[in-house]
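Pilot study result, target chain (313 residues):
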Amino acid sequence: MTVTPALRPGRTILGISAVLLPFTADGDVDWKGFETLIGDTVAAGLIPAVNMDTGYVQLLDPDTRARVLECAARGCGPDGFVAGAFVGDEPGAPFAADAHLDALDAVAAAGGTPVVFPSYALNSLDDADWVAAHDAFGRRFDHFIGFELGPMFVPYGRIYSLDAYEGLLGVASCIGAKHSSLSRAAEWDRLAVRDRVRPDFHVFTGNDLAIDMVCYGSDYLLGLSAFAPASFAERDRRWANDDRSFHELNDLLQYLGAFAFRAPVPAYRHDAALFLQLRGRIASDATPPDAPRRDESDRAVLADIAQRIDAIR
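Predicted structure:
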Protein backbone atom coordinates (compact mmCIF):
# COMPACT_ATOMS: atom_id res chain seq x y z
CA MET A 1 0.00 0.00 0.00
CA THR A 2 1.34 3.40 -0.97
CA VAL A 3 2.06 5.66 1.98
CA THR A 4 1.61 9.35 1.29
CA PRO A 5 4.98 10.97 1.95
CA ALA A 6 5.47 14.08 4.04
CA LEU A 7 5.56 17.49 2.43
CA ARG A 8 8.98 19.09 2.03
CA PRO A 9 8.48 22.85 2.34
CA GLY A 10 11.34 25.20 1.56
CA ARG A 11 13.18 22.87 -0.80
CA THR A 12 14.75 24.14 -4.00
CA ILE A 13 13.06 22.55 -7.02
CA LEU A 14 15.02 21.60 -10.12
CA GLY A 15 12.80 22.60 -13.02
CA ILE A 16 13.30 21.29 -16.56
CA SER A 17 10.71 22.57 -19.00
CA ALA A 18 9.85 20.94 -22.30
CA VAL A 19 9.79 23.43 -25.16
CA LEU A 20 7.04 23.31 -27.76
CA LEU A 21 8.24 23.13 -31.36
CA PRO A 22 5.93 25.64 -33.08
CA PHE A 23 4.87 25.52 -36.72
CA THR A 24 3.87 28.15 -39.24
CA ALA A 25 0.51 28.29 -40.95
CA ASP A 26 2.28 26.93 -44.05
CA GLY A 27 3.32 23.79 -42.19
CA ASP A 28 6.99 24.61 -41.68
CA VAL A 29 8.83 24.70 -38.37
CA ASP A 30 8.69 28.20 -36.92
CA TRP A 31 12.37 28.46 -36.05
CA LYS A 32 12.15 32.06 -34.92
CA GLY A 33 9.29 31.19 -32.58
CA PHE A 34 11.22 28.18 -31.29
CA GLU A 35 14.20 30.35 -30.43
CA THR A 36 11.85 32.73 -28.61
CA LEU A 37 10.44 29.88 -26.52
CA ILE A 38 13.91 28.59 -25.64
CA GLY A 39 14.87 32.12 -24.62
CA ASP A 40 11.75 32.47 -22.47
CA THR A 41 12.56 29.21 -20.70
CA VAL A 42 16.16 30.18 -19.98
CA ALA A 43 15.17 33.69 -18.87
CA ALA A 44 12.76 32.14 -16.38
CA GLY A 45 15.61 30.16 -14.84
CA LEU A 46 14.46 26.75 -16.07
CA ILE A 47 16.43 24.24 -18.12
CA PRO A 48 14.98 23.74 -21.62
CA ALA A 49 14.14 20.24 -22.83
CA VAL A 50 13.90 19.74 -26.59
CA ASN A 51 13.09 16.83 -28.88
CA MET A 52 10.63 15.55 -26.32
CA ASP A 53 6.97 14.63 -26.80
CA THR A 54 6.11 18.34 -26.49
CA GLY A 55 8.50 18.94 -29.38
CA TYR A 56 6.86 16.32 -31.64
CA VAL A 57 10.09 14.34 -31.71
CA GLN A 58 8.26 11.26 -33.03
CA LEU A 59 7.13 13.21 -36.11
CA LEU A 60 10.42 14.86 -37.03
CA ASP A 61 12.95 13.75 -39.61
CA PRO A 62 16.61 13.37 -38.55
CA ASP A 63 17.69 16.69 -40.07
CA THR A 64 15.00 18.59 -38.16
CA ARG A 65 15.90 16.85 -34.90
CA ALA A 66 19.53 17.84 -35.48
CA ARG A 67 18.60 21.47 -36.13
CA VAL A 68 16.54 21.49 -32.93
CA LEU A 69 19.67 20.45 -31.04
CA GLU A 70 21.66 23.23 -32.69
CA CYS A 71 19.07 25.82 -31.66
CA ALA A 72 19.03 24.53 -28.09
CA ALA A 73 22.81 24.61 -27.86
CA ARG A 74 22.90 28.22 -29.06
CA GLY A 75 20.08 29.40 -26.83
CA CYS A 76 20.62 27.53 -23.58
CA GLY A 77 21.94 29.14 -20.43
CA PRO A 78 24.80 28.07 -18.15
CA ASP A 79 22.83 25.05 -16.92
CA GLY A 80 22.65 23.68 -20.47
CA PHE A 81 19.77 21.77 -21.96
CA VAL A 82 18.37 18.26 -22.12
CA ALA A 83 17.05 16.50 -25.19
CA GLY A 84 15.26 13.32 -26.09
CA ALA A 85 17.42 10.63 -27.67
CA PHE A 86 14.79 9.19 -29.99
CA VAL A 87 14.88 5.96 -31.99
CA GLY A 88 11.96 5.40 -34.35
CA ASP A 89 11.02 1.74 -34.77
CA GLU A 90 7.99 -0.50 -35.30
CA PRO A 91 6.11 -2.97 -33.09
CA GLY A 92 8.04 -6.22 -32.84
CA ALA A 93 11.38 -4.66 -33.79
CA PRO A 94 14.39 -6.19 -32.04
CA PHE A 95 16.24 -4.01 -29.57
CA ALA A 96 19.08 -2.20 -31.36
CA ALA A 97 21.50 -0.97 -28.70
CA ASP A 98 23.69 0.79 -31.27
CA ALA A 99 20.78 2.88 -32.54
CA HIS A 100 20.03 4.11 -29.03
CA LEU A 101 23.70 4.80 -28.35
CA ASP A 102 23.88 6.81 -31.57
CA ALA A 103 20.84 8.86 -30.52
CA LEU A 104 22.33 9.51 -27.11
CA ASP A 105 25.62 10.47 -28.72
CA ALA A 106 23.93 13.01 -30.99
CA VAL A 107 22.57 14.84 -27.95
CA ALA A 108 25.82 14.65 -26.01
CA ALA A 109 27.84 15.83 -29.03
CA ALA A 110 25.60 18.91 -29.22
CA GLY A 111 26.35 19.67 -25.57
CA GLY A 112 23.10 18.43 -24.07
CA THR A 113 22.13 15.88 -21.46
CA PRO A 114 20.46 12.93 -23.22
CA VAL A 115 17.04 11.66 -22.15
CA VAL A 116 16.50 8.02 -23.15
CA PHE A 117 13.30 8.35 -25.15
CA PRO A 118 11.19 5.16 -25.17
CA SER A 119 10.86 3.00 -28.26
CA TYR A 120 8.90 -0.13 -29.12
CA ALA A 121 12.01 -2.29 -28.85
CA LEU A 122 13.36 -0.76 -25.64
CA ASN A 123 10.01 -1.08 -23.93
CA SER A 124 9.57 -4.67 -25.08
CA LEU A 125 12.49 -5.71 -22.86
CA ASP A 126 11.82 -7.43 -19.56
CA ASP A 127 12.84 -5.68 -16.36
CA ALA A 128 16.33 -7.16 -16.17
CA ASP A 129 17.16 -6.45 -19.81
CA TRP A 130 15.76 -2.93 -19.55
CA VAL A 131 18.08 -2.21 -16.62
CA ALA A 132 20.97 -3.87 -18.48
CA ALA A 133 20.34 -1.63 -21.51
CA HIS A 134 20.58 1.46 -19.32
CA ASP A 135 23.70 0.09 -17.68
CA ALA A 136 25.23 -0.17 -21.15
CA PHE A 137 24.23 3.44 -21.86
CA GLY A 138 25.91 4.43 -18.62
CA ARG A 139 29.18 2.83 -19.63
CA ARG A 140 29.29 5.13 -22.68
CA PHE A 141 27.94 8.38 -21.21
CA ASP A 142 28.81 9.98 -17.90
CA HIS A 143 25.35 11.46 -17.37
CA PHE A 144 21.91 10.88 -18.83
CA ILE A 145 18.25 10.83 -17.79
CA GLY A 146 15.94 7.81 -17.93
CA PHE A 147 12.31 7.98 -18.98
CA GLU A 148 9.14 6.09 -18.10
CA LEU A 149 6.34 7.25 -20.42
CA GLY A 150 2.81 5.93 -20.09
CA PRO A 151 0.79 4.57 -23.02
CA MET A 152 -1.65 7.49 -22.80
CA PHE A 153 1.09 9.60 -24.41
CA VAL A 154 2.51 7.21 -27.02
CA PRO A 155 1.52 3.68 -28.15
CA TYR A 156 4.92 2.31 -27.16
CA GLY A 157 4.79 3.76 -23.66
CA ARG A 158 5.46 1.61 -20.61
CA ILE A 159 5.79 2.05 -16.85
CA TYR A 160 8.24 -0.40 -15.33
CA SER A 161 8.07 -2.29 -12.04
CA LEU A 162 9.50 -0.83 -8.84
CA ASP A 163 12.18 -3.53 -8.90
CA ALA A 164 13.29 -2.36 -12.35
CA TYR A 165 13.21 1.24 -11.16
CA GLU A 166 15.44 0.35 -8.23
CA GLY A 167 17.78 -1.35 -10.68
CA LEU A 168 17.94 1.86 -12.70
CA LEU A 169 19.12 3.71 -9.59
CA GLY A 170 22.12 1.42 -9.61
CA VAL A 171 23.34 2.98 -12.87
CA ALA A 172 25.62 5.69 -11.49
CA SER A 173 25.62 7.90 -14.57
CA CYS A 174 21.82 7.97 -14.73
CA ILE A 175 21.24 11.18 -12.78
CA GLY A 176 17.46 10.90 -12.72
CA ALA A 177 14.41 9.65 -14.55
CA LYS A 178 11.27 11.30 -15.87
CA HIS A 179 8.17 9.49 -14.64
CA SER A 180 5.04 10.04 -16.72
CA SER A 181 2.42 7.57 -15.51
CA LEU A 182 0.03 10.34 -14.37
CA SER A 183 -0.25 8.33 -11.13
CA ARG A 184 0.52 9.91 -7.78
CA ALA A 185 0.81 6.52 -6.09
CA ALA A 186 3.35 5.20 -8.60
CA GLU A 187 5.46 8.33 -8.24
CA TRP A 188 5.26 8.32 -4.44
CA ASP A 189 6.53 4.73 -4.54
CA ARG A 190 9.47 5.86 -6.65
CA LEU A 191 10.26 8.68 -4.24
CA ALA A 192 10.35 6.15 -1.40
CA VAL A 193 12.75 3.93 -3.35
CA ARG A 194 14.89 6.94 -4.24
CA ASP A 195 15.09 8.11 -0.62
CA ARG A 196 16.05 4.63 0.53
CA VAL A 197 18.53 3.71 -2.20
CA ARG A 198 20.01 6.85 -3.73
CA PRO A 199 18.94 10.22 -2.30
CA ASP A 200 20.82 12.24 -4.94
CA PHE A 201 18.77 10.70 -7.78
CA HIS A 202 16.18 13.04 -9.34
CA VAL A 203 12.62 11.81 -9.71
CA PHE A 204 11.47 14.15 -12.48
CA THR A 205 7.70 14.26 -12.35
CA GLY A 206 5.95 14.21 -15.68
CA ASN A 207 2.54 14.22 -14.01
CA ASP A 208 0.82 17.17 -15.62
CA LEU A 209 -2.31 16.31 -13.63
CA ALA A 210 -0.53 16.56 -10.26
CA ILE A 211 2.13 19.22 -10.55
CA ASP A 212 2.27 19.55 -6.77
CA MET A 213 4.36 16.36 -6.71
CA VAL A 214 7.26 18.78 -6.25
CA CYS A 215 5.93 19.34 -2.72
CA TYR A 216 6.75 15.72 -1.88
CA GLY A 217 10.30 15.66 -3.20
CA SER A 218 10.02 15.32 -6.97
CA ASP A 219 11.69 17.68 -9.38
CA TYR A 220 10.09 18.07 -12.80
CA LEU A 221 10.44 17.64 -16.52
CA LEU A 222 7.01 18.75 -17.68
CA GLY A 223 5.17 19.46 -20.87
CA LEU A 224 2.74 21.73 -19.03
CA SER A 225 5.48 24.18 -18.07
CA ALA A 226 5.96 24.84 -21.81
CA PHE A 227 2.77 26.93 -21.61
CA ALA A 228 4.14 29.37 -19.02
CA PRO A 229 7.75 28.79 -17.92
CA ALA A 230 7.99 32.09 -16.03
CA SER A 231 4.90 31.21 -13.99
CA PHE A 232 6.33 27.81 -13.11
CA ALA A 233 9.63 29.39 -12.08
CA GLU A 234 7.76 31.89 -9.89
CA ARG A 235 5.76 29.05 -8.34
CA ASP A 236 9.03 27.22 -7.58
CA ARG A 237 10.50 30.31 -5.92
CA ARG A 238 7.44 30.63 -3.71
CA TRP A 239 7.82 27.03 -2.56
CA ALA A 240 11.53 27.52 -1.81
CA ASN A 241 10.66 30.65 0.20
CA ASP A 242 7.86 28.85 2.08
CA ASP A 243 5.44 31.43 0.69
CA ARG A 244 1.79 30.41 1.15
CA SER A 245 0.88 32.10 -2.13
CA PHE A 246 2.56 29.12 -3.81
CA HIS A 247 -0.73 27.27 -3.54
CA GLU A 248 -2.80 29.92 -5.29
CA LEU A 249 -0.47 29.97 -8.28
CA ASN A 250 -0.03 26.19 -8.30
CA ASP A 251 -3.80 25.65 -8.24
CA LEU A 252 -4.26 27.85 -11.28
CA LEU A 253 -1.45 26.14 -13.19
CA GLN A 254 -3.00 22.80 -12.25
CA TYR A 255 -6.34 23.96 -13.67
CA LEU A 256 -4.49 24.66 -16.89
CA GLY A 257 -2.99 21.17 -16.78
CA ALA A 258 -6.29 19.43 -16.09
CA PHE A 259 -7.85 21.23 -19.04
CA ALA A 260 -5.01 20.82 -21.53
CA PHE A 261 -4.15 17.20 -20.69
CA ARG A 262 -7.64 15.78 -20.97
CA ALA A 263 -8.22 12.97 -23.47
CA PRO A 264 -6.88 12.62 -26.06
CA VAL A 265 -3.78 13.53 -24.07
CA PRO A 266 -1.44 14.18 -27.06
CA ALA A 267 -3.67 17.08 -28.11
CA TYR A 268 -2.21 19.06 -25.21
CA ARG A 269 0.44 20.22 -27.68
CA HIS A 270 -2.18 22.09 -29.70
CA ASP A 271 -3.45 23.70 -26.50
CA ALA A 272 0.14 24.77 -25.81
CA ALA A 273 0.32 26.38 -29.25
CA LEU A 274 -3.02 28.13 -28.68
CA PHE A 275 -1.92 29.41 -25.28
CA LEU A 276 1.45 30.66 -26.50
CA GLN A 277 -0.14 32.31 -29.52
CA LEU A 278 -2.64 34.07 -27.24
CA ARG A 279 0.26 35.40 -25.19
CA GLY A 280 2.08 36.66 -28.26
CA ARG A 281 5.02 34.26 -27.99
CA ILE A 282 4.43 32.49 -31.33
CA ALA A 283 2.57 33.53 -34.47
CA SER A 284 0.42 30.47 -35.17
CA ASP A 285 -1.32 27.58 -33.44
CA ALA A 286 -0.41 25.28 -36.34
CA THR A 287 0.63 21.69 -35.63
CA PRO A 288 2.20 18.94 -37.76
CA PRO A 289 -0.27 17.11 -40.05
CA ASP A 290 -0.39 13.92 -37.95
CA ALA A 291 -0.78 15.64 -34.58
CA PRO A 292 -4.23 15.75 -32.89
CA ARG A 293 -5.84 19.16 -32.46
CA ARG A 294 -8.40 20.66 -30.08
CA ASP A 295 -11.63 22.37 -30.96
CA GLU A 296 -11.47 26.13 -31.48
CA SER A 297 -13.61 26.51 -28.34
CA ASP A 298 -10.48 25.81 -26.24
CA ARG A 299 -9.17 29.25 -27.16
CA ALA A 300 -11.63 31.13 -24.92
CA VAL A 301 -10.91 28.92 -21.91
CA LEU A 302 -7.16 29.28 -22.37
CA ALA A 303 -7.47 33.06 -22.73
CA ASP A 304 -9.32 33.19 -19.40
CA ILE A 305 -6.64 31.09 -17.70
CA ALA A 306 -3.87 33.28 -19.13
CA GLN A 307 -5.56 36.40 -17.73
CA ARG A 308 -5.90 34.81 -14.30
CA ILE A 309 -2.24 33.77 -14.25
CA ASP A 310 -1.12 37.26 -15.18
CA ALA A 311 -3.30 38.71 -12.42
CA ILE A 312 -1.64 36.76 -9.60
CA ARG A 313 2.01 36.79 -10.71
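One observation from the pilot: The mean pLDDT is 96. A full batch analysis is planned for the follow-on phase.
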